[in-house]
């Protein structure tokens, strides 16, 4: 089993995190890990993101990766910060090659057959299906997965606590991603750990 496969099978849900304040990094990771969600995607959408990755890595049990990685320069920064896996909203030749050359577990975004074929050409067969709901939802992924029967996905985008189990019931889905675990605003760590516990209990 490849390392990205192992990571995708660790928990049914990968929280997609947008963290503005580095002081929140540790308590947030602790709450999610306590609830059973140990794979954490820190999006590079805030100035604090790389420091957030460094902080979250100190939390025992957390497997911390970088999300919203869109080019080789961000890839390098994310690796340098200690990311254990990389997620991208899409797949370009330059980013794909750089990620494969680096050897880091990589989950690029795909939403059509051409994207998947570009990934397969690079030796990749684990993808984020993004934006999952807007790109046609479960019927779209079913159609897309059919010709690529060895490929597995982490659908992300528009998924909620109520819809996650429908996605997870698909054979082609190993886990799903979502930002619903950490609502915007001042964090309620007890509620976050509770939400993580419910998400971790969903069957993958
Ligand atoms: C992502 O980057 O994966 C998405 O922004 C997450 O989508 P969601 O906010 O709809 O869960």
Secondary-structure blueprint:
Layout: H1 3-8, E1 13-17, H2 25-35, E2 39-43, H3 49-56, E3 63-67, H4 72-80, E4 86-88, H5 93-102, E5 106-110, H6 113-121, E6 126-129, H7 137-145, E7 152-155, H8 164-168, E8 176-178, H9 189-200
3-phosphoglyceric acid is lined by residues 16, 43, 67-68, 89, 130, 156-159, 177-179.
EC number: 4.1.2.14
Pathway: Carbohydrate acid metabolism; 2-dehydro-3-deoxy-D-gluconate degradation; D-glyceraldehyde 3-phosphate and pyruvate from 2-dehydro-3-deoxy-D-gluconate: step 2/2
Pfam families: Aldolase
Task: Give an overview of the whole structure.
- The strands form two sheets. Strands 3-2-1-8 form a four-stranded parallel sheet. A four-stranded parallel sheet has the order 4-5-6-7.
- The longest helix is centred in the last third of the chain and has 12 residues, at 189-200.
- The protein has helices at residues 3-8, 25-35, 49-56, 72-80, 93-102, 113-121, 137-145, 164-168, 189-200, and strands at 13-17, 39-43, 63-67, 86-88, 106-110, 126-129, 152-155, 176-178.
- It has 204 residues and is an alpha/beta fold.
- 3-phosphoglyceric acid is lined by residues 16, 43, 67-68, 89, 130, 156-159, 177-179.
- 3-phosphoglyceric acid binds next to strand 8.
């Amino acid at each position: 089993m490849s390392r990205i496969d192992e990571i995708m099978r660790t928990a049914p849900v990968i929280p997609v995190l947008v963290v503005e304040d580095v002081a929140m990094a540790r308590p947030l990771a602790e709450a999610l890990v306590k609830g059973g969600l140990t794979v954490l995607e820190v999006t590079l959408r805030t100035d604090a993101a790389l420091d957030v990755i460094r902080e979250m890595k100190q939390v025992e049990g957390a497997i911390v990766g970088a999300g919203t990685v869109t080019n080789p320069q961000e890839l390098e920064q994310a690796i340098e910060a200690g990311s254990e896996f990389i997620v991208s909203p899409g797949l370009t030749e330059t980013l794909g090659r750089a990620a494969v050359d680096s050897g880091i577990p990589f989950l690029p975004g795909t939403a059509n057959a051409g994207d998947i074929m570009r990934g397969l050409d690079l030796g990749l067969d684990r993808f984020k299906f993004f934006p999952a709901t807007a790109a046609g939802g479960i019927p779209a992924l079913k159609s897309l997965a059919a010709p690529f029967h060895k490929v597995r996905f982490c659908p992300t985008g528009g998924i909620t606590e109520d819809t996650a189990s429908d996605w997870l019931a698909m054979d082609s889905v190993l886990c799903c991603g979502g930002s619903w675990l950490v609502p915007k605003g001042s964090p309620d760590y007890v509620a976050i750990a509770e939400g993580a516990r419910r998400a971790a209990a969903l069957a993958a």
